[in-house]
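Thread: pyridoxal-5'-phosphate complex, take 2
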Amino acid sequence: MPGTEFFGKEETEGVNEVLTTGCLFRYNHDELRRGIWKARELEAEVCRFTGAGYAHAVSSGSTAVSTALAAAGIGHGDEVIVPPFTYIATIEAVMFAGGLPVFAEVDETLCLSATGILKALTPKTKAVLLVHMCGAAADMDAVMQVIDDHNLILVEDAGQALGAFYKNKSVGLFGRTGAFSFDFFKITTAGEGGLFITDDEQRYKHADSFADHGHDHIGNNRGMENHPIIGFNYRISELHAAVGLEQMRRLPEVIRLNLRNKKIIKDTLGSVSEVSFRRVPDPDGDSATFLNFFLPDTETAGKVMDQFAEDGIGGCNYWYTNMYHFINQWDHVKDLKSAAPLAIHHFGAPQDYHNLDLPVSQEVIGKLISLGIRASWTEDEARKFGENMKRSILKVLR
Ligand SMILES: Cc1ncc(COP(=O)(O)O)c(C=O)c1O
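Output below.
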């Protein structure tokens, strides 16, 4: 969890600056805040780093995905292609937008594949919600070809991929709108927080209003602002933004250290012939938050995880059995269980969720183990960690 590995006096000072003014609210109160605008500064920093034309900070990665869907024009009754391997927020965001999730295959990029999207297309498909999983971009040339050929709307859930680029373009900027998460587990954390990005001014304006009860944020009299659209409260507080801003400033150095430590461990595991690695379509754009590797099959991956536990090796995720990241454990979604009726109850599920045919995803996620890279490891610590992992893996394989 690189974000939390480097908390320092900068974060403390940033929060204290906000507390000293007493203005915890991101809008208005110009006199009280004495020129301190943390959310605005965070948005400017995200624009600078990603190259986005516009950024808007919100309360979480989940609300950033909701905002990205709304600003892209996705809503009631729209079929949206989604991956079966993601954090559950992706699917929830589609359902709460009134959309109908259609599950398609991921491949060894760990993201939706172009062939998977093609196979899942129906005459009603409106959009693809592409998730850039585990710190690296999807195969964007291939994905964009399908998006363009079929006139689809692309929205990017880059909740786990701030800092990832594909051919020098930041994730989140390939489609109409994109979203990042700044929750406690991400490469940059605000405690809780999220960022919406786009290059389209009108979509930015919609996001800006959508995330704050429709306010147009023109002028300095909040009670008298106009409301071009219906919105809700997805605002970030100045306290969270202050932390997120300092974390953004650390990001280039965190990525450098991630890449260094990931390479050390990858080189060590790479000497085991049965181990292979996630396909990263643009390795130069990897944020390197995870080393994702494959064992020959699901059974072996499960045994390796057991061996890691026995040998005291932490930090590895086995998503195949994780309750929140893989579809096999999402019975509540398949059963359409919700607190109150959703659009999907009215329209009906677009697929038979209990009998989905996703053999590639099952195989790929079954044999996948993801090690969370620690940026704070010294080179020596990374080397030792990799050697310990290799020893455990060989106990299972040999
Ligand atoms: C791909 C993805 N999308 C969305 C989210 C939601 O982010 P948050 O926890 O900030 O709401 C996450 C969080 O893990 C995520 O991994």
